[in-house]
Structures are given as structure tokens and as C-alpha cells.
Design brief:
six-stranded antiparallel barrel; elongated; Immunoglobulin-like; 32 strands; 3 domains; 15-stranded antiparallel β-sheet; 465 residues; Pdz3 Domain; single chain
Length: 465
């Protein structure tokens, strides 16, 4: 017992010396930077390069989930100056504990083993037609000289959705027009249900006659749909779902996310490029075609893009087979590629640099800063342009993210989001666990200007009621 206490005492002293003397060394800092949680896909090895001049033992709480250096025994004696290989064996989670000299607990880490995920990268230019869930109020106007307008009297606000009139569901602008005209002819008010956030409210709308146009109005500008172009990020052939754009579609007037009432993804053909320059992000100019051949439905519009069902991988892509996806912690600063279209429907591969990766504790659209380095793309577009949002980012054979924003003051650079957040919203990736991180801010502009922003090439239908 006395020898054990003496050994533990000296081990503790040595540990303190290592902390003091090694604190300034790169290997020691790398060791201390090891996360409290690590995630692996089934069957995938992970190497830890600690490069510390010390021996240790590694114990695994559940050896059926994880093996160390291919050893069958547990715990395993290791040399910290050599790479430590973790091999996932089956789904689950377990705790890994590292003991210095086999005695002093030095590091505890939770290891989660997730099912391997493979999807087909996109890059195709797509046309997006999004229908709102209800009719969105985007503004007020006077009816003749009457103040306030009928809509303002009823306390209907910009950003509200009209979802029901006189007991009938409302999803289109022309439905509102018909209800208003009918009530006006009958000299009565319209019982109207609006949705404001997560709450519903019933109001009474009294139409007023616009004598100039000889039509009844309620003093509201309303919208029921949005359309634009973007880029397909991935298609999951197993689940029959897709993800695109990389960020939410917002209404260009209210700046609020459009609540999905339906929609479709169709073929798009890039006709020309407006080259980006400092202070003025460029854009793809594209048209919809073969609109009767619907590629997919739109069921979700989240901060990470649009998602829905898709029967098959669209043609003209570079990949026919699925490739592995990379988790956010697998992304490295360094060379990568994006897939996108700059002419017609031809998907091409272009070189970029991931200049900074952002550790994220919670899902966020701005996970990495990227810079276009490919001379061909710089010559054609000047860098990242609007319409490029959703372009897949591939690194070391894995799909790791998607382009989301371009920097206004430097169109060669922009943001990308980690692919795992898009996979989660698509229903492909379930619980993943979170890891340590921090927020990062920079002036940027969405890379899908066809849906919001300056209004160039916006394809919205706005009606004054």
C-alpha cells in the first residue's frame, strides 16, 4: 500500500512538471485540445496524433463499441508518441479514459459511433417554386383617401399570414380577391383568420370600394409564392430526399422565412453570368425549362435550405454513385472543391480553399470561410455569385458542406455550412451529439439573391388588395 501511495505521489508530481514544462509545446497543446466528445461512423478508423513522450493505458467502458490499436484486450497499454488508432465496431456510445503511466487519469472522452451515411453530391442548377402556407401580408396601402386602411383597422400586420376567410382555407392571392369582392358586393365584412408566429387570431375585415378601379380593396399587399434559382446540394437515393440552397428562403419585403405550403423543384438552365466585383456581388442568370418535369417537392424551408422528396438523381451531375459524408470535425483547413454550374446545365468541379473552419456548439449556417482559388471560376464569375448557394463542398472524397454566402467586400470569398446540419434537416442524419465551438461574424451577402436582397431577377407575384 505504501509503495502504491508513493508511486501515485511521484506520478502526480511528474504530471505537474509535464503541465508546466510542456504547456508551451505544440504536442502538449494538441493533447489538451482533444475534445470531450468524439464521433465516428461505423467501420471508420480515427487516428489521434498526441506525440507525447510518455506511456499510458487506454480503457474503454464498452469494448463492443470501440477498439484501440486493433487490440482485443481492455485496457490497452499505448505509447503516446505513436498514433493512437480508434476503430468503431458497432453503433452506440462509450467512454474512453486515458491513464498516464497506467495510474493517473489524464483524459476522459465520450465516443459516439454513428451509422455511415452516403449521398450523391449535386451541383445542378435548379429552379425553385415555393408556395407559402397561407397568403403573406407584405405591406399596407390606402384605399382612396380613407385612413387608416381596412387592413390596419383590423390590426393585420406585415408578416401575418391570411389562412382563412369566411370559413374557407386561403392559399392563393386570387382566393383573397374573390372573397373580398364577394363581401364588398354583399356590403358585409369578411371573417378572417390570420397566423402571427405560432398564434392564430380572428379579425373582421370590411372591404372598401376603390372608385378609381371600381373594385373592393382591404388595403393590403399580399403574396402567395416565391421563385428563383439555386443549386442542388445532395440527393439521398435510399430515403428519396434531397437538400438544396444551404440557407432559408425569405420574403424580400418582410425578410421573414417563408412558411411552406408546398412547392416544387424544376430544371434550370444558366444563360449568363453577371461577374462579381468588390461591393457588388454577381449572379447567375437562369431560366426554368421543362417545368412539367418536376424534379422534387418542397416540404421544408429551414435556415439550412429547402428539403423535400425526390424520386431520382437529376441528370447532368458528376456523380452517379453515393459518396461518404464528413462530419464537421473532419473538415480541415486546406484545399477542397465545389460543384456548380456556370453555363447551361453542365456541372463542373472547381478548386477552393477552406481558409477557416468554425467550431460550432449549435447548428449554424456559417461553419467555414472559403476562398475560390480556381483560375477558371475566377475568370468566369469573379468568385462566388448569387445562385451558387447550395453548391456542394467536397474534401478528400467526402461531402462536407455547401456554399451559403458571398462576402460583399471580397467576392472571391464567402461562407459555407457543414453538411451534417443539412442532412439533419432532411431527415437523413438523426441525433449526432454536439461539440465545443464558438461563433464567428463577418459582413456577408446571401449567395441566392434570386430569392431575397436587392430584388434583381426576383420572381415574386405581388397583389394590391
Amino acid at each position: 500500500m505504501g509503495h502504491r501511495k508513493k508511486y501515485t505521489k511521484w506520478a502526480g508530481v511528474l504530471l505537474v512538471l509535464l503541465l508546466i514544462l510542456g504547456g508551451v509545446s505544440t504536442p502538449f497543446r494538441q493533447f489538451m485540445a482533444l475534445p470531450a466528445e468524439m464521433r465516428l461512423f461505423t467501420g471508420s478508423p480515427k487516428q489521434l496524433h498526441l506525440t507525447l513522450p510518455a506511456s499510458a493505458t487506454v480503457s474503454i467502458a464498452d469494448p463492443d463499441v470501440l477498439a484501440v490499436n486493433g487490440a482485443r484486450q481492455n485496457p490497452v497499454r499505448v505509447n503516446l508518441n505513436q498514433p493512437l488508432t480508434l476503430m468503431s465496431k458497432q453503433l452506440g456510445q462509450t467512454q474512453l479514459t486515458l491513464h498516464l503511466f497506467g495510474k493517473v487519469p489524464l483524459k476522459r472522452m465520450m465516443v459516439r459511433v454513428l451509422p455511415e451515411i452516403r449521398v450523391i453530391p449535386g451541383g445542378q442548377s435548379i429552379g425553385v417554386k415555393l408556395a407559402s402556407d397561407g397568403v403573406l401580408v407584405v405591406g399596407h396601402h390606402l384605399v382612396g383617401s380613407s385612413r387608416p386602411s381596412p387592413g390596419e383597422k383590423a390590426d393585420i400586420r406585415v408578416g401575418d399570414y391570411i389562412v382563412e376567410m369566411d370559413g374557407h382555407p386561403v392559399n392563393e392571392v386570387n382566393q383573397v380577391a374573390q372573397m373580398v369582392e364577394k363581401a364588398g358586393d354583399e356590403k358585409r365584412s369578411v371573417k378572417t383568420v390570420i397566423r402571427r408566429g405560432h398564434q392564430r387570431k380572428t379579425v373582421s375585415l370590411q372591404p372598401e370600394l376603390d372608385r378609381k378601379e371600381n373594385a373592393f380593396r382591404i388595403g393590403l399587399y399580399v403574396r402567395d409564392s416565391a421563385a428563383g434559382v439555386g443549386t442542388l446540394t445532395f440527393f439521398d437515393p435510399g430515403k428519396g430526399v434531397y437538400g438544396a440552397l444551404g440557407h432559408v428562403i425569405t420574403d424580400m419585403d418582410t425578410r421573414q422565412p417563408i412558411q411552406v405550403g408546398g412547392g416544387k423543384v424544376v430544371h434550370s438552365n444558366v444563360t449568363s453570368i453577371e461577374k462579381g466585383q468588390t461591393g457588388d456581388p454577381g449572379e447567375k442568370r437562369a431560366i426554368f425549362f421543362r417545368e412539367n418535369q418536376v424534379l422534387g417537392s418542397i416540404t421544408r424551408n429551414t435556415q439550412f435550405g429547402i428539403f423535400g422528396k425526390m424520386d431520382q438523381n437529376p441528370t447532368s451531375g458528376l456523380y452517379e454513385q453515393a459518396i461518404p459524408v464528413g462530419l464537421s470535425e473532419e473538415v480541415k483547413e486546406g484545399p477542397a472543391e465545389i460543384l456548380t454550374v456556370v453555363e447551361g446545365q453542365k456541372v463542373e468541379r472547381y478548386n477552393i480553399e477552406i481558409v477557416h473552419r468554425i467550431h460550432q456548439k449549435f447548428p449554424a449556417t456559417k461553419g467555414m470561410i472559403i476562398k475560390v482559388t480556381d483560375p477558371r471560376l475566377l475568370k468566369k464569375t469573379g468568385g462566388i455569385v448569387q445562385g451558387m448557394s447550395g453548391s456542394p463542398i467536397i474534401q478528400q472524397g467526402k461531402l462536407v458542406g455547401a456554399v451559403t454566402h458571398v462576402f460583399v467586400n471580397d467576392p472571391t470569398s464567402g461562407y459555407g455550412t457543414y453538411i451534417e446540419w443539412m442532412l439533419k434537416d432532411a431527415g437523413v442524419l438523426e441525433k449526432t451529439g454536439l461539440h465545443d465551438g464558438a461563433r464567428f461574424f463577418y459582413k456577408e451577402f446571401p449567395a441566392t439573391g434570386n430569392f431575397k436582397g436587392e430584388g434583381r431577377n426576383d420572381r415574386f407575384f405581388v397583389e394590391a388588395m
